[in-house]
Amino acid sequence: MVLNGPNLNLLGQREPEQYGSESLQDVEAMCRTFAEKEGYSIDFRQSNHEGVLIDAIHEAGVQIKAGEMLGVVFNPGAYTHTSIALHDAIKGAEVPVIEVHISNVHAREAFRHNSYISPCAEGIVVGMGTFGYLLGMQGLIHKKG
Q1: pTM for this prediction
Q2: Which residues form the active site (predicted)?
């Protein structure tokens, strides 16, 4: 699963100097192409609502336990810095997560330096642009092997 949090539906429009000019649809196409080449399919989702993201993580947990999914590449957007609930969902559902951020959050405002997701993530990709999604997917595949 590739899961995207709030405002990522605005990729390509919102602060292109920070996030680039690719749209979320472009990122989805890139991820699908990569997954297919590796012999996988993806469930690509975006929501601006915390509860919807939590539900997706819970669903992923069930699929992972059933051997139907490797894990979640997750760009939680601003919820990175605010959501204990997402942290608890990842831990509770026992979901392997690779946290992804398009920009280098550590080179930005101080409030972006703290992540509630990082302590429960298997790995973190920061500041690699949208290529970070592919690195996250590679990370999940590597950890499986």
Answers
A1: 0.93
A2: 19, 101
